[in-house]
Write a structure and sequence with these properties.
Length: 537
């Protein structure tokens, strides 16, 4: 009651309505309305979104849209797009949408048109990416750069890795790309083990330029470079920075001419279209990069302008709320049927879980309802041979997002037909299952029948696009970004801060200083003390 959500008219009505819907099966819904599959779908910006295989009726949707309106979604959406400081815990605007706004448009923050600033940086990135790709930018000894190593973590890593993997088909194959994030020295060691420092460029990607993992890896990279090139002047040819912190960049020894800036209104996990995208631009080239930005922008515009009833991110988010809060679903699976999207679930994990994994509302109160679900997944069909068993016959309700493409990027028949047939079949099997009668008719032994029955009634959405391209990747990412925003609005949490990651960082710093100093103080609980002792022994 205390946060208002559960006392809203629409919420109470949904609670009541759930009692009716929980008894109806998807099979029954399709029996009652044989063209349900033709009506509960949306086509927007080249994305076909089928949401008919859900445990919803027209009334469910009506109530969910009412809930969104009672929560002020449209006003809050406008507030984000107009640059209001909606990240209230950090007193910041939230303007990743400005990063893909076309040149010449206007979004004002504190009296400045940020779109102009965005395009200034984009032009600098374009110039630099062109020089690396053409070989014009050479290393300290005159050799062209062949290897690009992005050093960053969290939001300064997951977007670049995901985008590189997703768009590898469009990348310049003569260049090698590596991504170092972990504080574990193995990450760095493996990334550079076959590289020549003379041909290697390090992109140090850190919004704050103070993150322990990134700075430790950047210093190791510096030593690795100097070990071979033995001249401080080499750093200027082999290191660039992506950051908001000019002072720290200069302190590290990177010429701020080689720094690509962004702004405090870009959240880490929403930063892949800021300067943080430099490795992506070098890999796929500026032209493809601009296409990706155009895809983001198309989805931004769809989200901003489409009525809630025709708005893909809004419907996705409301379905999440429906399962999370009424069916007590704990997780949401994301299952791309496109191998290039193998890091997409990991990318979404951060975007969603760091955004809505919060028990304190914007008003500083503890929620009395569930917030963000766990997002997870793997590409199909691999997942089918590992964890799908639990989705089909386990005791947990796991709504699934299937993502498929009509065309493969490789002309290798019959692969694409088999791949898409599998994706479509999974949605069908999850929704409609297989009855005991069907199994019996196959002549299965009576004792085995219960094991072979599929209850079905397991919900899924399917997203179909023509092919995995830069523009479509942009649309997909923005679609999830805006869905997260809507979920944040419904649950009244701030999807743009991440206070929950701070405590572990502070405690790690304490333990670092303890294990590096003599004598070792033992001032933790007995378990933590014993672990430190074991490590030092
Ligand atoms: C994302 C988070 C977090 C952040 C990393 C890296 O939204 O803020 O994942 O991106 O901690 O931070 P820096 O870019 O400042 O190094």
């Amino acid at each position: 009651m205390k946060n208002g959500l559960t006392s809203l008219e629409a919420w109470k009505a949904l609670d009541k309505h759930y009692q009716d819907v929980k008894r109806i099966t998807i099979k029954e819904l399709f029996r009652q309305d044989t063209i349900r599959g033709n009506s509960l779908n949306l086509s927007a910006e080249g994305i076909y979104f089928d949401y008919s295989k859900h445990r919803i009726t027209g009334k469910t949707l009506g109530l969910l849209f009412k809930l969104a309106r009672e929560r002020g979604l449209e006003t809050k959406r406008n507030a984000m797009f107009s640059g209001e400081k909606i990240n209230i815990t950090e007193h910041r605007s939230v303007l990743h949408i400005a990063l893909r706004a076309p040149k010449g448009s206007t979004i004002m923050v504190d009296g400045v048109n940020v779109v102009d600033q965005v395009h200034e940086v984009l032009e600098k990135m374009t110039d630099f990416a062109g020089k690396i790709r053409s070989g014009e930018w050479s290393g300290f000894t005159g050799k062209p750069i062949r290897n690009i190593v992005n050093i960053g973590i969290g939001g300064s890593d997951l977007g670049p890795v995901m985008a590189y993997e997703a768009l590898k088909h469009y990348s310049k194959r003569e260049l090698t790309f590596r991504f170092v994030s972990n504080i574990d020295g193995s990450d760095f060691a493996e990334a550079v083990h076959d590289l020549n420092p003379e041909e290697t460029l390090f992109i140090v990607a850190s919004k704050t330029f103070t993150t322990l993992e990134t700075m430790t890896n950047a210093h190791t990279a510096r030593s690795w470079t100097l070990n071979k090139l033995s001249d401080e002047a080499a750093i200027g040819r082999h290191f660039v920075a992506l950051s908001t912190n000019e002072k720290e960049v200069a302190k590290f020894g990177i010429d701020t001419k080689n720094m690509f800036g962004f702004w405090d209104w870009v959240g880490g996990r929403y930063s892949m279209t800021s300067a943080i995208g430099l490795s992506t631009m070098i890999a796929i080239g500026p032209e493809h990069y601009y296409e990706m930005l155009a895809g983001f922008h198309k989805m931004d515009e769809h989200f901003r302008t489409a009525p809630l009833e025709k708005n893909i991110p809004v419907i996705m988010a409301l379905l999440n709320v429906w399962y999370n809060n009424f069916f007590n679903a704990q997780t949401q699976a994301v299952l791309p049927y496109e191998n290039y999207l193998k890091r997409f679930p990991a990318y979404l994990q951060q975007m969603t879980m760091e955004s809505t994994g919060k028990y304190i509302t914007l008003d500083g109160q503890k929620v009395d309802y569930q917030t963000g679900p766990v997002y997870w997944g793997e590409p199909g069909t691999n997942g089918q041979h590992s964890f799908y068993q639990l989705i089909h016959q386990g005791t947990k309700l796991i709504p699934c997002d299937f993502i498929g493409f009509k065309e493969s990027l490789h002309n290798l028949p019959p692969h694409q037909d088999y791949l898409m047939a599998n994706m479509i079949a999974q949605g069908e099997a999850l929704a409609f299952g297989k009855t005991a009668e069907d199994v019996r008719n196959e002549g299965v032994d009576e004792k085995l029948i219960p094991h072979k029955v599929f209850e079905g009634n397991r919900p899924s959405s399917t997203f179909f696009l023509d092919k995995l391209s830069p523009v479509n990747l942009g649309k997909l990412v923005a679609m999830y970004e805006h869905s997260v925003f809507v979920q944040g609005v419904i649950w009244n949490v701030n999807p743009f801060d991440q206070m929950g990651v701070e405590l572990g960082k502070v405690l790690a710093q304490n333990i670092i200083s303890e294990i590096q100093q003599e004598p070792k103080p033992a001032r933790h609980d007995s378990s933590t003390n014993a672990l430190i002792h074991f490590y030092l022994k």
